[in-house]
Amino acid sequence: MSSSTIRPFLLADALVSGATGALLVIAAPMLESWLGLPAALLRYAGIILLPFAMVVGWLGSQAAPPRAAVKAIVATNFAWVAASILLLVAGDVNPTTLGIAFVLFQAAVVLVLGELQVMGLRKTARIA
Fold first, then answer.
1. Per residue in 32-68, is it b (16+ CB within 10 Å) or e — as a string?
2. What pLDDT digit, counting tens, does each position of 81-127 carry?
């Protein structure tokens, strides 16, 4: 896989995931009151994001990230987007307007990163 095609998208994903994970872990109690989402949910989401960010960052640092690993990252990103939407429609939480905006914004960012990664995979398939 051409590193110039996919690596920037993986590194951006790692940066965004790591920053969001750190914020959620560190500030979960404060965010709970602003977002209307349980602190435990926010903290666990952050705990999940931190190792994910490390793996994605490691893949992004490889000269030629394995296609199968990148596909797994893309699938995980799309699953995260689906879970974010499900969180809002299932009715198990009662987020504030800011909370709804936060969930939708982070899902949109993840969706864009996933789509950029798909585009990178397609481009490298044509090059190969």
1. beebbbebebbbebbeebeebbebbbebbeeeebeee
2. 999 999 999 999 999 999 999 999 999 999 999 999 999 999 887 66
d(CA 30, CA 72): 33
Q: If you search the block for the tokens 């490298």, which residue do you land on?
A: 124
Beta strands in the chain (DSSP E): none
Residue with tokens 């750190």: 22
User: Are 81 and 103 spatial neighbours (Cβ–Cβ below 8 Å)?
Assistant: no
Q: Which of 112, 110, 63, 62 is nearest to 83 (CA)?
A: 110
Of the candidates 11, 35, 8, 12, the one whose C-alpha atom is nearest the C-alpha of residue 23 is 35
Could you identify the residue written with the tokens 């969930």?
103
Copy the structure tokens of residue 51.
């190792």
Closest CA to 31 of 21, 86, 109: 21
Give the 3-state DSSP-derived string for 67-91, with helices as H, strands as E and coil as C. HHHHHHHHHHHHHHHHHHHHHHHHC
